[in-house]
Design a protein that fits this description.
Helix 3 runs parallel beside helix 4 and helix 4 crosses helix 5. The strands form two sheets. Strands 3-2-4-1-10-9-11 form a seven-stranded antiparallel sheet. It has a five-stranded antiparallel sheet with strand order 5-6-7-8-12. Helices cover about 25% and strands about 30% of the residues. The chain starts with a strand and ends in a 5-residue tail after the last helix. The protein is built from seven helices and twelve strands.
């Protein structure tokens, strides 16, 4: 499983510490180490998507995040993902997250942690060749095939996967979408309930609120010695899709 986070708001002051925290645990993840996984590293590339004002940037690389230069990030919406690929999954820059898909209504970017049965999802979609595609990429194709707002599309795709018993691990999802007609951005997240596979602290997401920003983080990241201290940290509620912006302001999903 990988390490990832999403942020909304004005995060320019804390982002250097947060990025350093990601580099820290990607180089040596203490939770992986405690589980006896060797090497305890997230070394299979990384990437991000960010929307700030009129600028949207989507970046992916096969270089480990701990060997990369810091990113300049200020405000808006952002997802960052450092990959630890499953042994059977393809490697390389084109398989780094976030993945992108588009239709006539929306652009969607997805970062994923966990596992889906990609063969089962491919069968639903009528895809015959999946050898060089990751389970995350296949699941995004299921999301983009649904209708409605981003939350509705993701909820529908998760329901289909759950009904067909295609959640083979405990999936965590960070998904960013932009509506083409209105340019309205939306950033949502999901973590599966404990009964959907192995569920230990390594699998958890945490909701973090800072001054002027909020975020959702993989568990190892908030445990780094470099992570900002003056923040509120809560467990993410499981089994539902939430809007990060609405959770930050105390609103509820429609």
């Amino acid at each position: 499983m990988c390490r990832m986070f999403a942020m909304v708001g004005e995060f320019s002051q804390v982002f250097p510490e947060i990025f350093l925290s990601l580099q820290d645990v990607a180089r040596n993840d203490p939770l992986l180490d405690a589980m006896g996984i060797d090497p305890p590293m997230h070394s299979d590339g990384w990437g991000y998507v960010t929307l700030s004002g009129e600028n949207l940037v989507h970046y992916r690389t096969a270089v480990p995040v701990y060997d990369s230069n810091p990113v300049s990030a200020h405000n808006g919406f952002m997802i960052v993902h450092a990959r630890k690929a499953s042994p059977q999954e393809p490697h390389g820059v084109v398989n780094s997250h976030p993945f992108h898909a588009s239709d006539q209504d929306m652009d969607i970017y997805l970062a994923h942690n966990g596992a889906f049965d990609k063969g089962g999802i491919a069968e639903i979609l009528g895809i015959s060749e999946i050898r060089d595609q990751t389970d995350s990429e296949i699941f995004l194709r299921l999301v983009i095939s649904q209708k409605g707002r981003l939350t509705q599309r993701l909820e529908s795709a998760i329901e289909i996967a759950a009904d067909k018993k295609l959640l083979t691990g405990t999936p965590n999802l960070l998904v960013f979408g932009v509506t083409k007609e209105t340019m309205e951005p939306e950033l949502v997240y999901y973590t599966a309930p404990p009964n959907s596979g192995a569920y230990v602290d390594y699998n958890r997401l945490y909701l973090v609120r800072g001054r002027g920003w909020s975020g959702v983080f993989s568990s190892s990241i908030i445990g780094s010695e470099f992570f900002p201290e003056d923040v509120e940290i809560d467990h993410v509620k499981t089994g539902r899709v939430f809007s990060l912006k609405e959770q930050a302001t105390g609103q509820q999903n429609p």
